[in-house]
Structure to design on (122 residues):
């Protein structure tokens, strides 16, 4: 393997691993659900993208196009925002309380009352 490819693979693996670590620490250290959701959806998705880029570079030199890693990346980039959106909608539906340090707190209460306090249809 060429020297610059080894450096690129190592760089992307270390970069991706550090983002995954930061996202995992953010998941455990953030104080409420709304803040805690940013760790796995943003930093961990970016970290997995870096790890998969390193894997694509590594396996592209061994003879072919790395379709598996590309499909995993596309699947991850599509499903992470959708799952985060579903989790936030569920938290709003259950009227989960946020702490006072949560940014966008003024948007949480109107969304809870607007969407979930409607009268049922006849």
């Amino acid at each position: 393997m060429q020297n610059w490819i080894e450096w690129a693979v190592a760089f992307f693996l270390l970069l991706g691993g550090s983002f995954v670590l930061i996202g995992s620490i953010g998941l455990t250290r953030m104080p409420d659900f709304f803040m805690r959701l940013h760790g796995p959806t943003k930093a961990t998705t970016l970290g997995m993208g870096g790890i998969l880029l390193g894997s694509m570079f590594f396996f592209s030199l061994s003879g072919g196009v790395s379709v598996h890693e590309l499909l995993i990346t596309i699947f991850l980039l599509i499903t992470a925002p959708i799952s985060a959106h579903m989790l936030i909608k569920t938290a709003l539906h259950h009227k989960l309380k946020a702490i006072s340090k949560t940014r966008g707190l003024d948007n949480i209460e109107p969304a809870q009352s607007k969407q979930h306090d409607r009268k049922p249809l006849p």
About this structure: The helical segments are 3-29, 33-36, 38-60, 67-93, 105-116. Residues 6 and 77 are 26 Å apart (CA to CA). The mean pLDDT is 81.
